[in-house]
Amino acid sequence: MKHLLSAAILLALFIALPFIADAVGQSSLMILGARMLAYAIAAASLNLILGYGGMVSFGHAAFFGVGAYVVGILAYHAGGDPLLGFIPGTNQMLITLPVAMIVSGLVALVIGALSLRTGGVQFIMITLAFAQMLFFFFVSLTAYGGDDGLIISRTNALFGLNMRNRMTLYFVTLVIAVLFFLVLWRIVHSSFGGILAGLRQNERRMSAMGIPAYRYKLVAFVLSGMGVGLAGALEANLLRFASPDMMHWIKSGDLIIMIILGGVGTFFGPIIGAAAFMLLEFYLAGWTEHWPLILGAILLVVVLGTKGGIGGLISRLTGGRT
Amino acid sequence: MSAILQIEGLVKRFGGLTATDHVTLDVREGEIHALIGPNGAGKSTLINQLCGELVSDEGTIRLAGTDVTQRPETDRIGMGLGRTFQIASLLQESTVRENVGLAVQAHVGHNMRLFDRRMARRDVWTEADAMIAESGLHGRGDTLVSDLSHGEKKQLELIMALAGNPRLLLLDEPMAGLGQFESQRMIEQLGALRGKFSMLLVEHDMDAVYALADRISVLVYGRVIMTGTAEEIRESAEVREAYLGAEEDV
After folding, report:
1. pTM of the full predicted structure?
2. For chain A, which ranges sit under pLDDT 50?
3. Of chain B residues 85-104, which have a CB less than 8 A from chain A?
4. Interface predicted TM-score (ipTM) of this complex, two decimals
5. Residue of B nearest to A182 (CA)
6. How confident is the model at residue B247 (pLDDT cuts 50, 70, 90)?
7. Domains (ranges, CATH) in chain B?
8. Which residues of B are less than 8 Å from A211 in CB distance?
9. Domain-by-domain residue ranges, chain A?
10. A213, A251, A302, A316: least surrounded by Cβ within 10 Å?
């Protein structure tokens, strides 16, 4: 019941946001709001393995960038030469988003299959190394803009909607985000989700119960990569741009900060964290170029002063357990 | 009586130290076979070799006639092995009910279902609730594991091992750290399981060993120096000498 109320409040806020933006004459807030949703999807996807599964990946930006580049590259080839001579380009969102998720999932399968054979700090470093490899690969990919990135001339089309309209684009993003979080909710509360939570708490015990940890962690890693890939694809649509910076390790750090800000291992924490991070970045960056310094101080206060991030603080203030 | 577990010439070396040195023993169907020995004798190493946490350097392990020496731990669990840990190894952030539920779920299967509702699985929770109700943790289902006493954690360890409906239970010092009352209760519980499960019981508490064991093997410096009934072990000068010293009673 409490979760339902939290979901309803968050949904109401996100539904109201474009109308508030319209009322105050700041339509750019709509794009900011849509990007909050994209980053909420990315952070929540990472939280699936970090918060629920106990795997601290420092390379999830790789999947974010891959998702963005799938949209960019497919758009680049739309109406032109096929990709690799046989894959036709497209700017249909119903195709680009699933393809972005599938490609990100495949990349996650390769990275996860190798990195999950390690643990702890080694796992962190290997995921980081893979992400940086992909970063430099796309930097050197001059056919798609190299270091400068790839401009996407048009936002993906969907059911003949006017996707140039910011309000339309915002609500399309919101609907996708709601669908994503419904699916994520089912996964977290499924039999698989229970096993994943068990692995975070005590992998040795789970093995003694006959659970092959590697297999379950790999599935979680792939699902997480697919979610982050979806977020990257949305971000590419919102910015009409894909660049190697999207898969830089700093972006991976941003996602982790969002989770910590909102509350690690909680369902709504990453949404709150992503919104808080984006708002802070938006307003602090307009005030000073040294905004990361202030963000760092705020992060310290949140980590040291709140048990369980902003989400945990809100929960306690409203009489919750954590 | 056929053997559920047959160990032949099992060896585990850690550098220059031989922790288990050509260990040969068997556990018969329905038997409680105790393994005793002083600290550092290699008892826990042997348990870890048997369940697959440690890879053996030499020797063979047969479970119900099948050679499992090279099989991973999860395969062995699937073939009917269950274990408890010397230091309770539980899901600390979860409740007793969640721990038992997960153990039952792991055994029942369908663990890769991504979109079912775990808490609505009757096949899991009916069994888990029944196991808790029949145990010493009745009424403690909603208690967080971190809030349980040491004795209760040991109880939960046993319930979780039983949730896998094993053919052979490896019990690594189930009485360790328990008070007299709790030890007695554990002895009664294990005694009640006699005949239903085969057990290899590693234990220091000799009262518990004598009360429960059908046969006892004595492990000293990684070697089995004797296997016999409680009476035979008690009367053995070799065991007294090697285990506790000649002046003490075993």
Report:
1. 0.92
2. 321-322
3. 85, 89-94, 98, 101-103
4. 0.90
5. B115
6. very low
7. 1-80+166-250 (3.40.50.300), 90-165 (no CATH)
8. 74, 106, 111
9. 26-247
10. A316
